[in-house]
Amino acid sequence: MLAHSLRGIRFDMVYSCSSPLSMETAEILNRDRKRAFSVIKRLALADFKADFEINGECFDLSLCIYTMMAQSRRFCSSIHAQLKIVEKRLLEIVENIGALYRGNVLIVMEPLMVKLLINHFLTEQNSETKWNTIRPASLSILHSDAKGCHLILNNDISHYQCKSVA
C-alpha cells in the first residue's frame, strides 16, 4: 500500500542502507514505477553499525538511543558526545545526497538513523516530547531547497509492513 501511495511521486534516485530490511523496502517502493531504478544506491553507513568504537571505547548505538529516550536530558554526556558524532556524519551523508539532486530522492534507512535525523531537526522542542511522540518506524520526508533542509514528519505507518524506515 505504501508503494501505491508513493506511485505519483517521481524520484530522481533511490538510496538504501545496507540492512536486508532496508534494501527489501527500497526494492518494493521502487518496483513497478514508470522510472524505476535498476540499481538502488547503497548508503555508506559503515560507521553506523550496531557497535561502534570511539576513543577506544565500544558503544552500542541502540543502547545509546534507548538511554537517551529513557533518561531525557539526564543521559551520560559521553554517550551524548558519541551520538553527536554519528549524527554529524549522517547529516553530512544526507547533505551530500541533497547537493547531487534537485528533485525527490527516496532514502530508506533504519529507525535508529531516522531517530537521529529527527532529533537534529526538532532541537527546539522539549527533549522528552521530541523522543516520545515519534514512532520508531515512520515515513518521513526530508525536503531540500534553497532555504535549506526541512524534515516533514508523517507518522502514518498504517501501510508500513517492515521495520525499516523510508
From TrEMBL:
Cited Pfam families: His_Phos_1
Superkingdom assignment: Bacteria
Name of the protein: Phosphoglycerate mutase
Species the sequence originates in: Shewanella sp. (strain MR-7)
